[in-house]
């Protein structure tokens, strides 16, 4: 592409020179020269924000932040946040269903991750991670390790999550770049499955460097395999629609006002998966069956509104003010796999129900839920690069307020007031980072009810309001003796009161859980734009809730202790100008220190991902054609019940999933220059594998081989 552009410029210059020599002094209008080609995906970002609330190159951080760029997202075309997160080793999903206790969250480094959040601050709301379309994302950052010292207990005040890390989403918004309209359409076809997706992204600069508007829209119509097999055969396909308008206004050189919004609606067939036994579906289930009924549905609607102000007060001082309102309404009806204790004992040994039936199910599970999240924050970032004696300093102060209410589950409204303090001081090779997060939680009074499944009798428990505080510190060190070599280490602790639990006496439990991480590693740059990173971490989580069943009710005691340790490697960047690569490996060893089976593979011990793209720059036939591919590996792991080991026969085999893709500029066949044809095959070799699980009898199967064709046009 560069050679073509240089040739065009040279030809124009030569023509102008010839006119001058011949005495022609008229101004010649040469028009606009457009050279279009398939863009080479860039996998390594220039900066990341989620690990420190300041824009820093990832190699400068004392912690690990994995980032999936907009190019990576476009190339792999994931359909929701879960599909995207499966490309990151060390992250596991807990079941792609609204039935799980906190749907849309992930485990990271063997521990529970916090609820995904916009810009690292605003939690997206319960269930949103199951439906969020990654096309709307500018990028996604995964911050590894306990994050309470930076972002607080968001998402953790009603669950012992946040010890593993956080998933930070950055929604696309209006900008002052060129006005541009992008249209993308993808069609996927496989055995007993098909999908149709359409996306549009239009950014209009209405006043140069003053006002811009952007509108992003997406629709997805999908018929999964389980709609054509099993008791759900013939169910209506999934239908999902999203629109995200935004604007940005710059009334002064140093002040920017903006607004991001998103509105989404999804209606899809319910799916809770199949039981697993010795790496395959048990109880005579096929791989792609479903025990749900034809009319079982999961319906989801959400709204997100985020106004913000960026004020560059001085050259060194940036003030960011923001707020958000996130609303979601979902309902689901699902027939679950089910077994009593006698059935379970038989299933563990034989993989079959004692009755000999195929669909051992409950009658159905039905629930509705409305969530409302409110958030306000003010972030002050003061950076001074030239201090006396060569010092540099970056100070971050962020007070914020967060309020959540929900109509079911742990429904007591919870408020959180917090302040993040962080300072980074550098001199020469060495940079020290220190910070602390102070949180004050208030859970409002509530009345909880429970119903005896045998008698139908309701009992009520009244809770008074509860106030708790938490302090979460962190520290980090980076040493960069050479431009191409960095050593780093960090120490962080997250302390969060876990609200909403009660013991068998009905007493509310508010003792905090704690998670401590030690980590160290190095990064080196073998070539100009390619970085290799390696780290070792150790996480200990204490005072976690342990479930126990008394009669027909579930209660908790705070005696749990877990440990997770591992090694992570990553390689990302450009090998050459036309060849980019991202490779990640994660080893994790998890221990439940209170269980009889202390060490077991709750998550895969080993996981690996390789993704690469290459753009041809040779003959005319192949020039600017981009080919790419990816490989994902997960080692053997065990299915669980509420995260605990069950039986040696209940496990998932290792899996190997290959994808390939190709982008071809359509100007090669005489079509408009700004149109790109995309071709792809997902799960190239048709691997049959389990991608996630809620319990050992609710395991979700990965998609079969699918062929994809698409077109992307820019105007």
Q: Could you walk me through the main structural features you see in this protein, from its secondary elements to its overall organization?
A:
This protein is mainly beta and 715 residues long. It folds into two domains: 1-35, no CATH class; 36-406 and 437-714, TonB-dependent receptor, beta-barrel domain (Maltoporin, Chain A). 6% of the residues lie in helices and 54% in strands. It is built from five helices and 42 strands. The strands form nine sheets. The protein has a 22-stranded antiparallel beta barrel. It has a five-stranded mixed sheet with strand order 1-7-8-5-6. Strands 2-3-4 form a three-stranded antiparallel sheet, with no helix packed on it. The longest helix has 20 residues, at 2-21. The two termini are 19 Å apart. Residues 1-37 have low confidence and may be disordered.
- What is the CATH homologous superfamily assignment of the largest domain? TonB-dependent receptor, beta-barrel domain
Total helix count?
5
Mean pLDDT across every amino acid position = 85
Taking all Cα atoms into account, the compactness measure Rg is 27 Å
Q: Strand content of the residues, in percent?
A: over 45%
Domain tally: 2
| Main structural class | mainly beta
Question: What is the share of helical residues?
Answer: under 10%
What is the CATH third-level topology name of the largest domain? Answer: Maltoporin, Chain A
The CATH architecture of the largest domain would be Beta Barrel
């Amino acid at each position: 592409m560069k050679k073509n552009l240089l040739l065009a410029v040279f030809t124009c210059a030569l023509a102008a020179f010839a006119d001058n020599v011949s005495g022609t002094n008229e101004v010649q209008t040469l028009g606009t020269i457009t050279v279009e080609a398939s863009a080479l995906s860039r996998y390594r970002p220039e900066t990341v924000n989620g690990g420190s609330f300041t824009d820093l190159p990832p190699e400068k951080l004392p912690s690990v932040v994995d980032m999936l760029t907009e190019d990576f997202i476009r190339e792999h075309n994931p359909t929701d946040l879960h599909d995207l997160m499966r490309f990151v080793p060390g992250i596991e999903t807990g079941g792609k269903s609204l039935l799980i206790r906190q749907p849309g969250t992930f485990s990271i480094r063997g521990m529970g991750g916090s609820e995904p959040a916009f810009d690292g601050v605003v939690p997206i709301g319960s269930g949103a991670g199951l439906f969020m379309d990654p096309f709307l994302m500018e990028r996604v950052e995964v911050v590894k390790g306990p994050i309470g010292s930076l972002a607080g207990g968001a998402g953790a005040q009603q669950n012992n999550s946040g010890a593993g890390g956080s998933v930070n989403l950055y929604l696309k918004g209006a900008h002052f770049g060129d006005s541009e309209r992008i249209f993308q359409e993808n069609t996927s076809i496989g055995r007993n499955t098909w999908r149709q997706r359409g996306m549009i992204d239009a950014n209009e600069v209405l006043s140069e460097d003053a006002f811009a508007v952007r509108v992003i829209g997406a629709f997805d119509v999908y018929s999964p395999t389980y709609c054509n097999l099993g008791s759900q055969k013939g169910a209506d396909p999934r239908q999902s629609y999203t629109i995200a308008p935004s604007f940005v206004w710059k009334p002064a050189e140093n002040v920017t006002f903006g607004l991001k919004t998103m509105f989404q609606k999804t209606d899809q067939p319910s799916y809770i998966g199949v039981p697993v036994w010795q790496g395959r579906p048990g109880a005579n289930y096929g791989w792609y069956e479903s025990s749900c009924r034809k009319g079982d549905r999961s319906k989801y609607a959400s709204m997100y509104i985020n106004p913000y102000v960026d004020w560059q007060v001085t050259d060194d001082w940036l003030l960011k003010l923001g707020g958000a309102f996130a609303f979601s309404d979902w309902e689901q009806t699902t027939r679950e796999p089910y077994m009593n204790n006698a059935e379970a004992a038989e299933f563990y040994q034989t993989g079959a129900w004692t009755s000999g039936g195929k669909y051992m199910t409950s009658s159905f599970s039905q629930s509705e839920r409305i969530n409302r999240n409110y958030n306000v924050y003010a972030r002050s970032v003061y950076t001074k690069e030239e201090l006396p004696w060569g010092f540099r300093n970056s100070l971050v102060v962020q007070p914020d307020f967060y309020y959540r209410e929900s109509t079911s589950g742990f429904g007591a409204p919870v408020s959180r007031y917090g302040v993040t303090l962080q300072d980074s001081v550098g001199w020469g090779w060495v940079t020290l980072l220190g910070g602390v997060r102070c949180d004050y939680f208030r859970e409002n009074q509530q009345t909880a009810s429970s119903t005896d499944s045998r008698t139908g009798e309701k009992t009520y428990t009244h809770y008074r309001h509860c106030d708790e505080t938490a302090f979460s510190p962190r520290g980090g060190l980076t040493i960069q003796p050479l431009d191409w070599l960095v050593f780093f280490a960090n120490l962080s602790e997250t302390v969060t009161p876990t609200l909403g639990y009660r013991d068998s006496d009905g007493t509310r439990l508010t003792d905090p859980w704690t998670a401590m991480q030690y980590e160290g590693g190095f990064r080196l740059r073998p070539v100009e734009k390619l970085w290799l990173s390696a780290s070792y971490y150790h996480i200990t989580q204490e005072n976690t809730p342990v479930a126990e069943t008394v009669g027909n009710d579930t209660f908790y005691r705070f005696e749990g202790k877990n440990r997770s340790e591992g090694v992570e490697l990553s390689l990302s960047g450009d090998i050459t100008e036309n060849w980019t690569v991202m490779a990640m490996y994660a080893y994790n060893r998890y221990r439940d220190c209170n269980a009889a089976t202390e060490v077991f593979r709750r998550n895969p011990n080993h996981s690996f991902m390789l993704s690469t793209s290459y753009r041809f720059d040779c003959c005319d036939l192949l020039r600017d054609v981009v080919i790419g591919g990816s490989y994902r590996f997960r080692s053997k792991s065990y299915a669980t019940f509420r995260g605990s080991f069950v039986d040696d026969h209940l496990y998932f085999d290792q899996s190997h999933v290959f994808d390939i893709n190709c982008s071809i500029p359509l100007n090669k066949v005489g079509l408009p220059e700004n149109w790109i044809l995309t071709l792809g095959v997902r799960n190239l070799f048709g691997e049959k594998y389990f991608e996630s699980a809620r319990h050992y009898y609710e395991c979700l199967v990965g998609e079969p081989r699918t062929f994809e064709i698409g077109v992307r046009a820019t105007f």
